[in-house]
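User: Second chain of the day. Same drill as before.
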Amino acid sequence: MKLTTALLLMFPLCATGQVPGSLTPAQIEEFKQNYTPLPSDRAIHNALNTADINTLAANANAAANFDNHFKYKVPSKGITNQQRSGRCWLFTGLNVLRAQAIRENDLPELEFSQVYNFFYDQLEKSNMFLQCVIDTYELPMDDRKVEFIFKSPVTDGGQFTGVADNLMKYGVVPSSAMPETYTSNHTSTFSRLLSLKLRQWGLELRDMAAKGASTDALEKRKQEMLSQVYRLLTLAYGTPPQSFTYTRRDSKGEAVDTRSYTPQEFYQTMLGNDLHKDYVMLMNDASRPYYKLYEIDLNRHQYDGHNWTFINVPMDVIKEAALKSLKDSTALYFGCDVNKFLNRELGTLDLNNYNYDDLLGVDFSMDKAQRVTTGSSASTHAMTLVGVDVDENERPTKWLIENSWGNGANNGHLIATDPWMDEYLFRLVVNSKYLPKKVLKVLDTHPELLPAWDHMN
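Assistant: Same format as last time:
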């Protein structure tokens, strides 16, 4: 059937010969006649021809709202740089833990190897994709779950549950034991090629399963595919060390001891946390009921890992937990919609940074729930919460955030106003000891399972 015929069957012509609801030349002419450019419109048009809209909408007075004083601040040393990769989730998780390791082991500094854990993340995601293909072979290719699986076989993105599963299984190593590579810092091309190959293998496994291949045959073929994935990952990222030698120094730089570690031994020596038992992810999704447990299907990094599970709570609960943690010199993993009202030059996140409404003469107001449900806002970046300033009543006024974009304004940190956090913070991972009983009781309930394509994914 021709496209025009199909459209006519769906949308019959009205008496004027137009499809109802379509845009007509007469309507466009009406728009034109109704619009009389004001002098300010012409000025704005000329400005938009030559300048970025954020430059034009910038609030010159916003910078006066910030200083670098924070009453509560977690000691941390060194700024990391994820460069042109989407590994903020991994950098943030490791940065939260390195602050703990530095404090508890009296270290002068420490940086964990991000590429070490990323290597295994990509191997685990490849296995999960191939196994999910086998699990769903009876479903048609246009089934929504199958479409979701094939859409992104591997990505460099993720969330804290992926950090927890990865480190509990593979441990950590210092950056000196497995340094970054150009490809780990510029992941897009390699990830695209790996995804392309995985999709090809996925179709092969579906075909084998449809033709009656046994479970053993499918598993054998999957193992052959993963052996090739392992080779490709070593070409791009290097070979993960099974053991390494590390000299531990105290905060004065004096050598304390030198010995060999396995990655798991290094994790237990420097940290020892049970990331599954000790930490809870809080979410502020204003479109859903609070004090309820949710789990997102297939949102995990490992086939044998944990789906992303979170407690939905109001913002005041999130901020209270963050304040308790920071007062106790404990950094936090959090996720936000970082590009909203971000002034990169100043390193600030402030609802007053840009006056888009005034510049364009349009009201852009939507509340947080409306932005989430319409896809206008979501958690796009993970960072490390390391400081907070408060008023005379101990209420937060601004927050200090350790970023992973290298050195820049505020020595590589962002400063966020408290109203900005209300609107654009979504996730906070907090040690359970900082949570009230009302929140902890939610963990005893059965989570509501959300689909893999949920708006919080």
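The longest strand covers residues 381-390.

User: Great, on to the next one.
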